């Protein structure tokens, strides 16, 4: 089963992907992986710099709006498994490309307050920059993208999220 996870910064997308990787041997692909890798190499980044990464991604998209999609689809088409998770779906064109490839979509909803709390805990030395970047265009479409399954992660722990993922996988397997 091919799964794409939609959610805002610090909503738990990577945590969900890691669970699927660890428990079910999923392969994780990310639209942002080449962006981060090339930005790190080009700009000599030692730590994650969200401003540079997001700006770099947008500037490259000015040349070809689908560049990161095409890159990911080439990797996807070379895989010999359907156990794939995308951990950073954020834009409508990404959504459409994955829909055409047969993905199901899981959306993680998080309150603004809980998101801010997680950002502060995750990035204690640079949380202000990350909070400011929640206004970036890359965060603006998550509410409007359609999904097959939705879970509000605001007031639940990881185990409840993992139970939700189990239910999705079991339901899809039972209803093939």
UniProtKB/TrEMBL annotation:
<dbReference type="InterPro" id="IPR027417">
    <property type="entry name" value="P-loop_NTPase"/>
</dbReference>
<protein>
    <submittedName>
        <fullName>Uncharacterized protein</fullName>
    </submittedName>
</protein>
């Amino acid at each position: 089963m091919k799964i794409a996870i939609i959610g805002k910064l610090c909503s738990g997308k990577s945590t969900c992907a890691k669970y699927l990787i660890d428990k079910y041997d999923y392969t994780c692909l990310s639209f942002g992986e080449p962006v981060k890798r090339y930005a790190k190499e080009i700009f000599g980044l030692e730590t994650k710099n969200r401003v540079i990464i997001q700006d770099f991604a947008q500037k490259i998209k000015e040349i070809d709006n689908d560049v990161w999609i095409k890159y990911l689809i080439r990797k996807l088409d070379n895989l010999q498994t359907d156990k794939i998770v995308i951990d950073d779906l954020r834009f409508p064109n990404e959504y459409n490309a994955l829909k055409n490839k047969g993905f199901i979509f899981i959306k993680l909803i998080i309150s603004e307050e809980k998101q801010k709390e997680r950002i502060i805990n995750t990035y204690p030395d640079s949380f202000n920059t990350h909070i400011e970047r929640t206004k970036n265009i890359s965060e603006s479409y998550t509410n409007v993208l359609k999904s097959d399954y939705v879970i509000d992660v605001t007031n639940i722990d990881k185990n409840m999220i993992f139970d939700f993922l189990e239910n999705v996988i079991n339901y899809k397997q039972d209803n093939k």
